[in-house]
Amino acid sequence: MDAESAQAIELIRSRISIRELVGRYVALKPGGKGVWKGLCPFHQEKTPSFYVNEAKGLCYCFGCKAGGDIFAFLQRIEGLEFREALERLAQEAGVELPRRKGPPSARKEALQVLELAQAYFRGHLEGAPLDYLRARGLTPASIERFGLGYAPPVWDGLLKHLHRHGVSPQEGLEAGVLVEREGRFFDRFRNRITFPILDPLGRVVGFTARALSPEDGPKYLNSPETALFKKSLLLYAYPQARQSIRERGRAVVVEGLFDAIALHQMGFTEAVAVLGSSLSSEQAHLLRRAEAVELYLAFDADEAGRRATLQSLNLEIARSFVVYAVLLEGGKDPGDLLLLPQGRDLFEKALAEALPEVEYRFQVAAQGLDLRRPEHKQRVLEALRPRLVSPEPFDRVVERLKAKVISALGISPRALEDYLSRAREPRRAPAGDPLARLSLGRPDLTEKRLLRELDVIALLYAVPEEEFGDWVRYVEANTWPPEGSLLAEFVQVSRSNSKSRILRHFEQRGEGARLMDILMKSPSFERAELEAHLGVAMARVREVYYEMRLDKLKAQLKNTTELEEIRALTREIQEVLQAIEAERRLYKR
């Protein structure tokens, strides 16, 4: 990394508080001097183990081991590449990044193509297509807010538009807005209302398009999945809803894109829509990041809608929310309410009367059955059994569902437990578990070397970006890290990477968590004390290098009978012992 880029990165760090950035996604509370804590956004937990150290500019979860600086945090929580996180934070901090050499990335090119397509569609929304949206009850403000557009019925309108802006047909194909058959390219969407799909950063990454003519099937046509557009990872209207979700502590999840827009227009701005048949784990994680506590699933009232609701309830992450099923009178969809004068009140009533998860599960399982008949009771139990068994000892849904079953089916608690016993798996610990025999004795030299090298790396990581390379070279010249060691690899990686990327490198190597653990636990010190701290850490590293050399010399001495070789090895052993004592005096004084 050049000096200009390093300076820009350091300037961004100085202008953006990691506590403020993390606080957009995590509710933080004071956890000590300069330290804040909250529930980790990367895994489910009930007790906060996610800490933010403002002085060090780092965050870290002592549970799942995720963490890093502002760049690493934004990368992980928004699913970005380093350059994307850097550009976003640079824009926020008002820092101009040095111009990149070479062609722009393919990812950026695809985003630019999609923006051009969106401008084309927006520019053609007039006349009959616009009248159609108004007839559905949408206001100009809603149409503008969600960027609705229209793809004309011509075969090459977008193709020519992209060509005028220097975009090749192949680039349009890769962005998902053109198709190719037998070497010819043409527009994917024709005579359709277009809905731009945004990622969590608010960028257009794909489209869903609704046909205006019954002859133009299918009714809804999506962009193909690309590196940017993956339906299971995105929620429609999420960027527009995120702030309301955080403020209200709840999210309303619907199936249709029109439904989501209609609810926003009626004032339910916490509404989002799935882009598939049901809520996915990744989509639920997005809602959790927005600090939703309650989920209101307002899927269609038909069989497919019930199935989608149950699939969403069965997600492991869904157990971290309080979940309700919203049932509209007459089997209406939320979008239908937009044309009714009392539509908002009807949906408000449906939310107030939403069925808790337990009631909804039982109602679906018992639908159409006579609960006085033993065989029908059996069918209810079979339908509910997967959710009546849980590895969690205090699963609130399990306990309430059991109580509902006992009451509604008229069976005893003992009979229910006997029925469920076959579904439970034994919880015995494996015999002879080697973990039980582990002790906390003195680590061997390899582990000792690793821990001491991590101490040096942690100190180097505290150095400002513009001085980082110089201090790495200083450590290399004063420790001579042996080939194959962690410190040698760190020195090599540091020659061409920023600190954020180095941390990611060691995460992938398997040592990222240990490095972050040391970074978070190590005491803070003044910048002027860095050389003294490094001097001690380097002495301790050199000591263990000498100790490892001593072990090899002793092994060679044990396996030789040659008198001259014995004398040479003995002299070298004495020299190494003296060097070890010299290093110990350096860090013990």
Automatic annotation (TrEMBL):
Give the coiled coil ranges: none
Q: Where are the zinc fingers (CHC2-type)?
A: 40-64
Tell me where on the tree of life, at the top rank, the source sits.
Answer: Bacteria
What keywords sit in the KW lines?
DNA replication, DNA-binding, DNA-directed RNA polymerase, Magnesium, Metal-binding, Nucleotidyltransferase, Primosome, Transcription, Transferase, Zinc, Zinc-finger
Its Enzyme Commission number? Answer: 2.7.7.101
Q: Write one Pfam family the protein is assigned to.
A: Toprim_2
The cofactor required is: Zn(2+)
The cofactor binding remark recorded in the entry reads:
Binds 1 zinc ion per monomer.
Q: Which GO terms describe its biological process?
A: DNA replication, synthesis of primer
Gene3D superfamilies (UniProt xref):
3.40.1360.10, DNA primase, catalytic core, N-terminal domain, Zinc finger, CHC2-type domain
Q: Which family does it belong to?
A: Belongs to the DnaG primase family.
The subunit field of the Swiss-Prot or TrEMBL record says: Monomer. Interacts with DnaB.
Q: What is known of its domains?
A: Contains an N-terminal zinc-binding domain, a central core domain that contains the primase activity, and a C-terminal DnaB-binding domain.
What is the annotated role of this protein in its UniProt record? RNA polymerase that catalyzes the synthesis of short RNA molecules used as primers for DNA polymerase during DNA replication.
Question: Which HAMAP family does the entry mention?
Answer: DNA_primase_DnaG
Q: What is this protein called?
A: DNA primase
The gene is dnaG
